[in-house]
Specification:
single chain, alpha/beta, Rossmann fold, 6-stranded mixed β-sheet, two-stranded antiparallel ribbon, 4 helices, 10 strands
Length: 177
């Protein structure tokens, strides 16, 4: 049995439509519904709801909370746990900033730490949310320990991962130059 810890922070991937305001908001998690759509043989996913924020609203203190939760889940060789991999659902706008913070804070990851998000919320048609979650869960089973961004068929290792607004995906920073 493979054990995966999934930490939710909000972001577009989990936004839902609020009929009262007519806006997409991070008001409730949809991750359990997303997971119910997947066939995960011999995989146990433990979901930890840390926060429900748009990534543009994340602070350095929020990023420290993310790092602390990863460490508590056994994400460091200095304090290994039973997680074979850690997935962090995150908004795409500042996913790169958080990935860099995790990379700097955890020198020796005990397992793959994968950040993923979506350009369109799970509830919308043509959303990339379920694809990216599926890829992230798969990736923690095949990648070596480290910090990664996994989305749209690619696994990019930190440092140096950024969102390319023009293409709507993540790339190595040097590709934008």
């Amino acid at each position: 049995m493979r054990n995966i810890t999934l930490i939710t922070t909000g972001g577009t991937i989990e936004k839902t439509y609020d009929e009262a305001t007519g806006r997409l908001e991070n008001s409730r998690s949809v991750v359990e519904h997303m997971l119910s759509q997947l066939r995960l043989a011999d995989i146990r996913v433990s979901t930890l709801g840390l926060m429900a924020k748009d990534s543009l609203d994340l602070t350095d203190a929020d990023r420290k909370r993310i790092v602390d939760m990863i460490l508590a889940a056994g994400g460091s060789s200095d304090s290994p746990g039973d997680a074979d991999g850690i997935v962090v659902l995150h908004g795409t706008d500042t996913l790169g900033v958080t990935g860099e913070a995790i990379h700097k804070a955890i020198a020796n990851p005990a397992a793959p730490i994968v950040l993923t998000g979506a350009m369109r919320p799970y509830e919308m048609t043509r959303s990339d949310a379920l694809q990216n979650l599926t890829e992230a869960i798969f990736a923690v089973g095949v990648l070596e320990p480290g910090v990664y961004c996994v989305a749209h068929g690619h696994a990019l290792r930190f440092p140096g991962v950024v969102k390319d607004q023009a293409s709507g995906t993540f790339v190595r920073a040097e590709k934008l130059v």
